[in-house]
Amino acid sequence: MDGQFAFSEEQPPDAAVEDVWRVLAVDDDGDFQRATASVLRDIELLGGRVELIQAFSCSEAEKLLASYKDIALVMFDVFMETEEAGLRLIKYLREEIDNSHTRVVLLTGDPDVPPAPDVMRDYDINDYWAKSELNAERLLTVLAAAVRGYAQLRAVAKARRGLQRIVESSNTLFTCKSLPELAGRILTEIAQLISQPVDALVCMRREDTTVSSPIEADVVGASGRFGRYINTTLTALDDMSVVKTLEQCFATQLTQRLPNGAVMFFPRLQAGADYACYIRCERGLDDTELELLNVFSTSISRGLFNVAMFSRLENMAYQDDLLKIPNRNALIRTLDVTLHSPAKAKQSLVLIDIDNFSGANTAFGTGYGDFILGLVAKKLRDAFNSEVFVARVRDDVFAILGPQKRVCAAEIVALFRKPKRPYELGQVNSLSSVTMHLDDFNGSARVALQDALLTLKQAKHLGQDQHSVYDPGLQSAHAEAYRLLLALRDAVEAGQISVALQPQIDMRSGRVTGVEALARWRKADGSMVAPLSFIPLAEATGYILPLGDLLMRLSLRAAKKLADAGYPHIRVAVNVSAPQLLQHDFIERFSSHLLMTGVLPTQVEVEITESVAMRSFDTVCEKLSALRAMGVEVAIDDFGTGFSSLSYLQLLPADRLKIDRSFVMEIGATNDQQMIAEAVIQIASRVGMQVIAEGVETQQQADWMLRHSCWHAQGYLFAKPMECSELLTWLGALEKRSA
Ligand code: C2E
Ligand code: CA
Ligand code: CA
């Protein structure tokens, strides 16, 4: 903006906007009133029509002054009733109704008696005439001077009020953080400034259009009859003359007065982007109003600049680079606000995932993938108004957040369904979705998104075109497990996983025959996570394969340390889960770990649970036989809990049975349960296997085992699981005692 309004040709620059100049003639002299009326009939002055109001007494005049606030001139005869009556009227005007704009001309029938000078000054009386001298021509001159004075005074007052308003509103403009908010406020302020309702538009020229290319602009603010065009483009306006005016404004970069309003230009240097503001009102703008708009435009520019810079900084963190729509950060921020708002109950989050996206991406290249993503983003954006928040979460996952009645998975999916040509290239044929009713969720935005993504992932396991709804009961457990799994992966990376070794004792001699290697997870804060909370999870998710590999390496390293420390006869038992054992290359892996750690197979035992052994019996037997052929021993863990048939058990290639802790615990408690322990021991001897009792905690249990020919035991009575170095110390102490 160059600081001045340029004027369009249709209207002379000094056009006044007042339609009417009101003149109040106060006189009981009927002849004078008649003469005045005939002079002022059909008179126009400074673009306005003169309207005469007549009063025949001071009291009548007071009433008229009170009801018409915009009387330009009052003419009255000082000596109309009494001298005081005239003075009272003027006092009423200036002091009681506080009108300082209306001009006052005194008339008198007697030219030799002028009013006192101090009265003229104190009450701002502009002129004094003897009625006899006031012919038609003079009356018009007097009137013209008065009207001009009145107009000027009003303009000054208006300018003062306007400037005050500008100062106040500038502060609020500077606090706006978003363009729609700012644009709305600008238009409200403009309407206030020119004291009339306006139909107005604020348009922002697209950044990527150059000076020479056709003008593309977005409507960022709109009011009055243009209100419905907000968030559309300039070309969407139905009024071609408005479009042209705005285009011209962008092209000429000039601010212009229009017959019924103005169009203002804000250049990018001051406003951060090129903006044009179109204002249309009921009447033309006067010079004061244009001047005020001029002054205000500085504040507008600064407000626009602030918003543009703020949003640019924000875009860097909250916008998806490729699709130019909000990203995951933005979603979390908005979701957070929604979750904390009272409207939460009626809001939904829908995530959609394009089926087979990665396949298409691989097959047709990332360019094609980007194209598809752009298509989806556009379709989603076009389908919703600003009430609904659309974001790209990652890859081919999009989020739609908004009122439940608007955000419906089925309808979103339908947007992409084109039954006619289902396999057209460049089209999304199948989507999966998850819907989360925010009312069902109590947690942070981050966890909400995480849970929704997990539900989506689970749904996608079932195939394509899957649509699920977040179930708070189910998901909180799932989400908990999921978090634990993520934490486990981090723990592996951070080296928080180790093995502890628990001695196995030959109770006859008191010698240590073996140790069981047990997984340990020590968190950064020193607290432990029990294997029973993470091993089953790892088994269920397949993560046990890499984790089991690690545990095996750690166990074998411990075996090597034991051998090196002079205990090559202490066997190390490694727990192996079903998915591990059933890997096609388990034996090869196991051998290569043995080789790498330099541990003899004969120093190692593999523990598998009874239930695993009985599942996929043939395969398991094959693997176990291969292990035993290498010299590795095999123990059947948790024995007694799997109700195996004796015939199968006889076929199982194993060296020992571990009596489950639950049976050992019963010893010394009730007699019935001891029967099972007895039976287990008998079965073991029938099939020619050694037995070892797990979880022996008391001397009574140990004695019982010895009495029933179970010579081997493991349990807290003898030792808890220990770190390798601790075990070596413990072994040293044990040797000293028995020596
Ligand atoms: P499990 O193989 O039956 O291991 C024996 C469990 O009993 C261990 O619990 C051990 O600390 C505990 N225990 C030993 N003596 C006593 C005792 O006298 N009293 C009591 N109350 N408990 C005793 P932990 O270490 O918590 O392991 C639990 C389970 O986690 C193991 O049961 C095993 O199924 C699994 N696990 C542990 N480490 C591994 C591993 O490296 N690989 C695999 N696949 N599973 C493992
Ligand atoms: Ca075990
Ligand atoms: Ca066990």
User: Can you identify the CATH superfamily of the largest domain?
Assistant: EAL domain
Q: What would you report as the Rg, rounded to the nearest angstrom?
A: 47 Å
- What is the number of beta strands? 26
* Residue runs with pLDDT of under 50 for 5 or more positions: 7-17
Approximate helicity band: 40-55%
Mean pLDDT across the residues is 87
Q: Which fold name corresponds to the CATH topology of the largest domain? A: TIM Barrel
Distance between the termini: 101 Å
Strand content: 15-25%
Report the CATH C-level class of the largest domain: Alpha Beta
Class from secondary-structure proportions:
alpha/beta
Number of helices: 26
Hetero groups in this structure are: ligand C2E, calcium ion
Overall shape: it is rod-shaped
Reported CATH architecture of the largest domain: Alpha-Beta Barrel
How many domains would you count in the coordinates? 4
Summarize the entry for a quick read.
The protein is α/β, with parallel strands linked by helices and about 750 residues long.
Walkthrough of the structure:
With 739 residues, this protein is an alpha/beta fold. It has four domains: 19-157, Rossmann fold; 176-318, Beta-Lactamase; 328-471, Alpha-Beta Plaits, CATH 3.30.70; 497-738, TIM Barrel (Alpha-Beta Barrel), CATH 3.20.20.450. Helices cover 47% and strands 20% of the residues. It contains 26 helices and 26 strands. The strands form four sheets. It has an eight-stranded mixed beta barrel, surrounded by six helices. A hairpin with a 2-residue loop joins strand 14 and strand 15 (397-403). Helix 2 runs parallel beside helix 3, helix 5 (136-175) packs parallel to helix 9 (287-318) and helix 14 (445-461) crosses helix 15. The N and C termini lie far apart (101 Å). Mean pLDDT is 87; it is low at 7-17. Bound molecules: ligand C2E and calcium ion (2 copies). Ligand C2E binds at residues 502, 518-519, 530-532, 535, 548, 551, 575-577, 637-638, 661, 695-697, 714-716, 721.
